[in-house]
Amino acid sequence: MTITVDMINRWDEEDGLKKYRDEFYIKEGSIYMDGNSLGLLSKRAESSLLSLLDSWKNHGIDGWTSGEEPWFYFAEKLGELSAPLVGAKKEEVMVTGSTTGNLHQLLATFYDPKEKRTKIVADELNFPSDIYAVQSILKLKGFNPDEQLIRVKSRDGHTICEEDIINELNEEVAILILPTVLYRSGQLFDIEKITKAAHEKGVIVGWDGCHSVGAIPHRFHQWEVDFAYWCNYKYLNAGPGGVGALFVHEKHFDKTPGLTGWFGSDKQKQFDMEHTFTPATTSGAYQIGTPHIFSMAPLLGSLKMFEEIGMKKIRDKSLHQTRVMMELIEQELSGYGFKMTNPLEDVCRGGHVSLEHPEAARICKSLKELGVVPDFRKPNIIRLAPVALYSTYKDLYETVQILRNIMNEKHYEKYSNEREVVA
């Protein structure tokens, strides 16, 4: 099928989510294709941040228990709003910490090496911070990460075969840590299948949802995922450094978190100031320190949009837009040396398109100069992420046309083929 301008215009006209684009601050003359790295600011997120600032101005310390959104219960409120995005009960989700900080907390809780079960399985394409956390917990427990951390190899350098993961699980493995979506290629794992296979072998499973939550619906409770963790600043548009989130299945609520702090207390006991920790009976127990209220505030406004729309509509549009972008790339960029490394099948694809090219770093610099904001990932990957809430089909078409012009004119040759400090 040849994609025409008329088709692009029709898809934009028929887009059931098009009204939400006006909710976001989009720089004039810019096409934003980096929402899988940092989502754009919405007017609702701005409003909720300003509202929380007003609560401080108007209530002072009484803001902890007074005002429209009392701070003392704010993390629980955001957890309840986040729960439908991952298919969880409200008690199972908490907005707290950061991605890596939450993984440290969860590993400290669930990694309990006994007898032969001492190993942790991950994958060699995982985001480095997850691997750092796993190596850290192994060292703290007195193990050599080179011996106890198993990283499943990729057969093609871009994806991981699910059967290779499952085959690594045996009586020596304590925990499996995987991303729901691989950050470079956008491969979406079959979470239900892998979780079930791991449990059949006695292995605890934790999922990093950074590149899926807000773009892909999940059913963590139904699939009996043991724990999960994710950031909120990508598809959920909570802002740079926005507070993260975690999920703990209710079957584990009897566990005491490995890292305890006063905000993990039972709320009725927290201000008793006892030196005996009485944990909350929900995922709230996994909080450590005082919530970062202003870093959490934008998420409130953002989650209200997700509550209105529902994840199915978001996923449907995301899949169609990535499909259209893939077809446009094949149609317009054949012969220019690009290789699509993301899965082609809808069931295996996350929310972005991944292009490999030897000149990727300098092509990304050209894109930015010409008004397209992409994402570069070492060594040679260009990530393009249409976001259902604010990307138009015209954005996709124009991005590919600009890419073609860059290649035709060799515009990228003016730049060095090296990443910037922040890629």
From TrEMBL:
EC number, UniProt record: 3.7.1.3
Residues involved in pyridoxal 5'-phosphate binding: T99, T100, F127, P128, S129, D130, D208, H211, Y233, W262, T290
Origin superkingdom: Bacteria
Pathway of action: Cofactor biosynthesis; NAD(+) biosynthesis; quinolinate from L-kynurenine: step 2/3; Amino-acid degradation; L-kynurenine degradation; L-alanine and anthranilate from L-kynurenine: step 1/1
Positions bearing N6-(pyridoxal phosphate)lysine: K234
Record field: catalytic activity: 3-hydroxy-L-kynurenine + H2O = 3-hydroxyanthranilate + L-alanine + H(+); L-kynurenine + H2O = anthranilate + L-alanine + H(+)
Keyword Hydrolase: yes
Coiled coil: none
Keyword list, A-Z: Hydrolase, Pyridine nucleotide biosynthesis, Pyridoxal phosphate
Pfam families, A to Z: KYNU_C
Function per UniProt: Catalyzes the cleavage of L-kynurenine (L-Kyn) and L-3-hydroxykynurenine (L-3OHKyn) into anthranilic acid (AA) and 3-hydroxyanthranilic acid (3-OHAA), respectively.
NCBIfam families tied to this protein: kynureninase (TIGR01814)
Assembly and oligomerization: Homodimer.
Family: Belongs to the kynureninase family.
Name of the protein this chain belongs to: Kynureninase
Provenance organism: Sutcliffiella horikoshii
